[in-house]
Amino acid sequence: MRKKIYFSAILIIAIVLIGGLFYTLPFYVTKPGMAKELHPIIKVEDGYKEKGNFMLTTVRMGRATIYSYLEAKIKKYEELYPVEQVLDKTETDEEYNAKQLYLMAQSKLNAIDVAYRKAGLPVNYKYKGIYVVDVVPGMPADGKLQAGDRIFKVDGHQFPSSEKFIAYVGEKNKGAQVTLTFMRDKKTKTAKLYVQPLKKQPNRVGIGIYLVDDKEVKVNPPVEVKTDEIGGPSAGLMFSLEIYNQLTKEDLTKGYQIAGTGTIDVDGTVGPIGGIEQKIVAADKAGAEIFFAPNEKGAKDSNYRAAVKTAKDIKTKMKIVPVDTFDDAVTYLEKLPKK
Predict the structure, then answer these.
(1) Any catalytic annotation for residue 51?
(2) Of 234, 312, 335, 338, which residue is the catalytic one?
(3) 279 is catalytic
(4) Annotated catalytic residue: which of 99, 108, 215, 279?
(5) Which of 123, 193, 290, 329 is the most exposed place for a label (fewest CB within 10 A)?
(6) Where in the sequence is the active site (predicted)?
């Protein structure tokens, strides 16, 4: 009898322990990710070599289990976020991940544009359609479209830009039907929707989607950027620096290990990102000597200020450099003495 009780107790404890590994809580946990060298990821045809490295930095994020929740409560530089702070009300994990991948795709396009124009080389685009980034709950697209769908025809028409797409749909009368042709999971699908007034702009009609352009950049020499499953727009600045460095004879790395973060707009503006503290920790662990952080024009709560505070806290020797634009980063590197 005692043996039965003993084995039953062990079994229950084992089930509880194993369950703690897989049972998810209504939270996301984030922690320092990695600092990844960019030269294996980005290849400009016949591009120049570099002695040092540019690195992108990442944050690891996933649904919290019982164990990861408790760990995040104890460990510094691990953060917990309620699900509703990460996902929209009707958004799934898959839709969120799709959105992050397409934000990454836009980031790559902007980085290529900025780098090639800085190098004095022309940039052209081939418009292919639009990507659905998000769907507005309660609007016609809700339940018919999802993040990651690529729309390439409306009523059988193809358009030369997303502006033309928006204008065509916006000219319809309330209740008018439009037929969308789109790709999902490499399969062509169609959806018939009736346009409605937009919630935030009731004097205009639409189908209720947030979108980004699906376009292919045309540059010479060609460039390839392989990001696999890395999502989000925060590597934009570092992408542009790596591409530009491969396009120009002078090696901007000068033998240093250079990490950083920040979105990049087509005009070269560097924007703020989330998880800057965790990225500082990741870059320090990877041996980075310099870290570019979005300055946000000197705002008191800027990424740069948070990065400096974290750098002091972890006692890193890494130099934290504030940047507002791509040119700020290039100017700093041009003045940097060779290692």
Answers:
(1) no
(2) 234
(3) yes
(4) 279
(5) 123
(6) 234, 279
